[in-house]
Structures
1.
Amino acid sequence: MNNQQPNRRALLKVLGFGTAISATGIGTAFASKSAADPTSHQVNGSPAPKITKVRSILTAPYGTNLVIVKVETDQDGLYGIGCATFTQRAHTVVSAIDEYINPFCQGKSVSNIEDIWQTAYQSSYWRNGPVLNNALSGLDQALWDIKGKMANMPVYELLGGKVRFAVDAYGHASGKSVEEVLDNIERFKDWGYKNIRIQLGGYGSTHLSKNPAYQEAGFGLASDNTINPIAYKNGTIEIFKKARERFGNDVELLHDMHERLQPMDAIDLLKRVEEYRPFFMEDPLSPENIGWFHQLRQQTSTPIAMGELFNSPHEWLNPMSERLFDFIRIHISQIGGITPAMKVARLGEWFNVRTAWHGPGDTSPVGHAANCHIDLAVWNFGVQEIIRFKEVAHEVFPGTPVIKDGFIHVNEAPGLGIDINESLAKKYPPVVYNYNWTQLRTNSGTPVRP
Ligand code: MG
């Protein structure tokens, strides 16, 4: 007992309560304060900062529309940023932030992240879809950024601290021919990557489908993409086979099927690549085809990554408890931010399902930083997708995570460790979204999910 007293006093001092408060008084001090006025929450002996404004910043420094949320407070110099990017509907998210999230948040304490998340989530009554969850993601990440700055700690410390020194990355080695794919794998290996995603001819090997019948008949647009499922299946098996022949087991190989095959074709492909030991095969089927995963799991041990298109954190409950997937592909800037992503990550721990957060070019560097802070702190982390950021990304977003020898390192500054240079961001106005990528058809012109 005697040993505990000085330690507790020291703790109170660190927390800023001073030595005048008795060691036994801390609990009651908080209890009576909050009972009298639940909004007068104090941090380090001072009233918690309040939100004065939430606003969007829309910028396209490397040709992709990125939506950033900035949360400003009544404390000089204290603000946070988060990623709300939904590049295909960027202006709609901007409206959700500026016209709805901003007035909703003004005057609220920055401290109560869970409370703000839950109340903002239900404030529209109709909830839990893309756009609104993107806006919520940006707000949530910005509040975690602020909390880290207030605690003078990186966000990963607030999530429990590191369970690994850095984040295992995977990069994209694509090519229009098998040889080009293999040469790109070599490049990534030279850069130090241990995990490499391989794609022949983009998603679904669309370059292999020339002069489709629908275009010759004047149906659809010349810019539409066409998939030949058999060419895609055979091409994918070929790159796995050739990659294993050339690189042995020296590297982990990943692939994104992008939900483009019919269920039996998808199962067939997963069975045939099994012998080449993929680290995972991603999105073998669309979310609309979730029922097929039961049949799929009974026929192959190829690991499955799934879920970048899930909009709601609740969509994870059944697939997790039924052990339908091996990797969680949540897009954190889409599903509601760090708060719900942490809940799904913890759920995954109980079912031995690992995280592999979505990390494409249309997640901003701020979103990538948020991904990596969670990666550092959760035990059931698997791997992190990342792009090779152009120099302009580091200029507009100082503190952008860096990749070294196949590992991602976050900036260790308090919060998310990343900022935005707003005057520079203004020099890269939004671009007109190109719908080409999502327009995919069969030979006769039937639309295929992208
Ligand atoms: Mg994907």
2.
Amino acid sequence: MGRVYNFSAGPAVLPEEVLRDAAAEMLDYNGSGMSVMEMSHRSKVYENIIEEAEKDIRDLLNIPDNYKVLFLQGGGHTQFAMVPMNLMKNRKADYIITGQWAKKAFQEAKMYGDVVAVASSEDETYSYIPDCSDLPIREDADYVYICENNTIYGTKFKTLPNTKGKDLVADVSSCFLSEPMDISKYGIVWGGVQKNIGPAGVVIAIVRDDLITDDVLEGTPSMLRYKVHADNKSLYNTPPAYNIYICGKVFKWIKSLGGLSAMKVRNEEKAKILYDFLDSSKLFKGTVRKEDRSLMNVPFITGDKEMDAKFIKEAEANGFVNLKGHRSVGGMRASIYNAMPKEGVEKLVEFMKKFEKENA
Ligand code: PLP
């Protein structure tokens, strides 16, 4: 079987060029006589790999000098705890709940302090982004937290909330490097790489210098302190060395295509193909408010569970895999991250049209 069109929400499709390139270097990286997998993370050759990866993501996102880039472990769920442990000086934080991942972060933070949901779209199954222009942000809140792109529900913040001067912390796992962003608007931007950037096992956190301190909650383990990782240039302990190397290759791939502005154009084109079809279809329909639609995750339904299951099964038999919606919402979801080629979306829509005709 050849490569399929993989619409998984994560781990997800990676650029074929990157995989081929990594395969070519598998036995002998750059004359070292070994795979990056086999290499000491303290070696000069590895140091160059991680330093170059950092430099490339700094270039791509135009990260200001007063922010550190940290390659961390423990997935998104560890950030749910690490953020409050490092930032809760007053033990207060305000969360905007736009989906399951924001809610999980909110629940985790509650273990450490007084945490309030200042807005939520749970009333309509997270199918929209609430108005965040004038929220009851508390005077002494340590930060305001969002999940910028909601992987499960397929919504995205198109404008950032008015945090009334408080530091904004954003989980960008499912929209990382999909378009340009202004890092200076955030205190912390973090994302798991397993959707748009690389193999699962790495979280990239971009943290403003003044938030990196020893003044953390009592009992915070060394591994969960941003300062420990910043002081050690992400090499405090053995990092997921190979995975970071692949991330570095993806950064170069994005650069070769013209950077994040070019990515945005590509992603808008791809998403438009699918959304335009959904808006014209008699069988399929999108599930979220149009103005809040994500460019990355596109959920849709037929309204009939059996028809959904039939579609998913036939799609898979035709090489379009992982289209089942998240287990908590059902229906379908096409994740169309950076590495999904336009052709993959065009072919999916072609298949959907055919399915619609046959099942009218
Ligand atoms: N945040 C978002 C937006 C996600 O989509 C996910 C997982 O899919 C997570 C957090 C959780 O990440 P992890 O499984 O790495 O803990």
